[in-house]
Amino acid sequence: MAKKQVNPTRMELTKLKKKLVTATRGHKLLKDKRDELMRQFLELVRENKDLREKVEAGIQAANKNFVLARAGMSDEVLNVALMIPKQEVFLTLDHKNVMSVDIPVFEYQTKTPDSNDIYSYGFAFTSSDLDDSIKSLQDIFPDMLKLAEVEKACQLMASEIEKTRRRVNALEHVMIPELRENIKYIVMKLDENERSTQIRLMKVKDMMLEQAHHYKEKEQMV
Amino acid sequence: MYRIAIMGDRDSIYGFAALGIATYPVSDKEEAVKTLKFLAESSFAVIYTTEALYTEIADVIETYSEGLVPAVIPVPGVHGNNGIGIAKVRKSVERAVGSDIIFNNEN
């Protein structure tokens, strides 16, 4: 690992120690966040998968009916029948906060409360296959909306999980080891400095004593 | 107040008009991109597209994946299902977990 140059000073040491505490705390929090997000995501994604299978099957069934309807009617009649829809759908958007990820919640209202208003035509000139297919679409519609909600939530959560995971890994494998190493380096350097100061003092003391009492000369005289 | 739109080839989407969903038939890629941009800037919270169209303009759709709305959702068209919808779910699992653990045991 490319080691960053740090000043072996006490101030730097205090700073690094504080940083390490923050990093460790952040790492723990982010890890918890990741785990909880993951739990919720897995629940949601299972729902997403089931819904998608259901919606796909439903739309395919409806499409079969539509093909039949088209076969039984001329294009003009069909166009006229569906030209002006009677019904209209509106959405209200709310959002839910899941571990700091905003996920959408859709609520739908129809313009008219009558569920039969999906048939925007008189029944005289259209085949009953058209009625069937529109009915089957209407049946699947709440699930389609739910699918939109869940799928969007899954997307958003997946990207948040990815981000969180990267942060956790960066902290765990880069930041924290680097800080630890730097702290160790500073501590060792400071200890070394202290030892060398101590030795120097001892040496100086010896020299001063020697000067004052002339031990060596006395030794020689004896 | 938001609305719902569906875009794709006409045959696949005209039935949704009856439900009150705004239908936008598109036939080629440029038109689709233009329509998508228009829809995303208007008040459409959910935009369904046929799977075939979704595959074609996936890179443009990707730019809307970060925001809360619009949710662009692929649905099968009249020509059937090319699997992009499930593939997308699988991709988000892979992105989040690192490997595919939901669909693994099915293949």
Describe the structure.
The complex is a heterodimer of chains A (222) and B (107). By secondary structure, chain A is mostly helical. Chain A has a domain at 36-160: Helix Hairpins. Chain A has helices at 10-72, 75-81, 128-213, 215-221; strands spanning 89-98, 101-110. A two-stranded antiparallel sheet of chain A has the order 1-2. Chain B contains 5 helices and 4 strands; from the N terminus they run βαβαβααβα. Chain B has helices at 10-13, 29-41, 51-56, 58-62, 84-97; strands at residues 3-8, 22-25, 44-50, 71-75. Chain B has one domain (3-81): Rossmann fold (3-Layer(aba) Sandwich), CATH 3.40.50.10580. The interface between A and B is large, with 61 and 42 residues.
Core attributes:
heterodimer; A: 222 residues; mainly alpha; Helix Hairpins; two-stranded antiparallel sheet; 4 helices; 2 strands; 73% helix; B: 107 residues; alpha/beta; Rossmann fold; 4-stranded parallel β-sheet; 5 helices; 4 strands; 21% strand
Condensed summary:
Chain A has 222 residues and is mainly alpha-helical.
Sequence stretches where pLDDT stays below 50 over 5 or more residues of chain A: none
The percentage helix of chain A is: over 70%
- CATH uppermost class of chain B: Alpha Beta
Helix run count of chain A = 4
Task: Write down the domain tally of chain B.
Answer: 1
Name the average pLDDT of chain B.
83
CA radius of gyration of chain A is 38 Å
What is the number of E strands of chain B? 4
In order across it, which strands form the biggest sheet of chain A? 1-2
Helix vs. strand class of chain A = mainly alpha
